[in-house]
TrEMBL record:
PANTHER family: ACREF/ENVCD OPERON REPRESSOR-RELATED, ACREF_ENVCD OPERON REPRESSOR-RELATED. InterPro entries: Homeodomain-like_sf, HTH-type_Tx_Regulator, HTH_TetR, Tet_transcr_reg_TetR-rel_C_sf. Coiled coil: none annotated. Keywords: DNA-binding, Repressor. Residues 20-80 form the HTH tetR-type domain. This is TetR/AcrR family transcriptional regulator. Pfam families: TetR_N. Residues 43-62 bind DNA. It comes from the Bacteria. It comes from Bacillus vallismortis.
Length: 217
């Protein structure tokens, strides 16, 4: 991650992460190494080498590698990236008027793709470690419930009232929509990369959300 990208992470929404220059170097190195190799496969000696500091410098601040993940990466997640993710997401996507649910899905999908592309090194850590770190999952739940859920539900209920969407529980439609988009993001950025025809798969995902897999008659 270059200096400009790191600065964007540290100053999102006007909040500055307070840390020494060595801590900044360690943060940058940890983000790059965790994103490249994963948390479990990265050693503190590798982080120290990449940061240009002694390994003992890391352990003066953090007792274990997990403490490093939680004490450096997690504050970036909880105080800066996650709230900004949800607030910007809510403002850019949910505070708009849409003529149809399909148009709404397109906007949401394209918005999240651009966000992932911009902040991929850190988001890759989130995606990888969410399966193993309960702290990460709790952050996701909190920011989603605080900034996104009610507005998402309102949009669904609106299009149900117009007859466009089936009379299913809003939570079911939310879960189906989000899981389809997240699945596409994981496939694109973690599994297939640029081998995927991104625009074609976006369109297929949108059609799947709207119509499922049943043959039209």
């Amino acid at each position: 991650m270059d200096a400009k990208s790191l600065e964007e992470l540290l100053y999102i929404e006007g909040e500055q992460m307070k840390m020494s220059e060595k801590q900044r170097l360690i943060l940058n190195a940890a983000i790059e190494m965790f994103a490249e190799k994963g948390f479990a496969s990265t050693s503190t000696s590798e982080i120290a080498k990449k940061a240009g500091v002694a390994e003992g410098t890391i352990f003066r601040h953090y007792k274990t590698k997990k403490d490093l993940l939680l004490s450096i990466v997690m504050p970036t997640v909880t105080k800066v990236v996650a709230p900004a993710f949800a607030k910007n997401f809510s403002k850019e996507v949910f505070e708009q008027d849409y003529p149809s649910y399909e148009v709404f899905i397109r906007e949401m999908l394209n918005n999240r793709f651009e966000f992932v592309k911009k902040h991929f090194p850190v988001l890759k850590i989130f995606i990888q470690e969410a399966f193993y770190q309960e702290e990460f999952r709790n952050v996701y739940k909190q920011v989603f419930n605080e900034h996104v859920y009610d507005k998402f539900k309102h949009i669904i209920e609106h299009f149900q009232s117009t007859g466009e969407l089936r009379d299913l529980p809003a939570d079911t439609i939310i879960r189906t929509t989000i899981s389809s988009i997240i699945g596409l993001i994981i496939t694109r950025f973690l599994l297939m990369g640029e081998e995927m025809d991104e625009e074609l798969e976006k369109e297929r995902t949108i059609q799947f959300i709207l119509y499922g897999v049943k043959q039209k008659r």
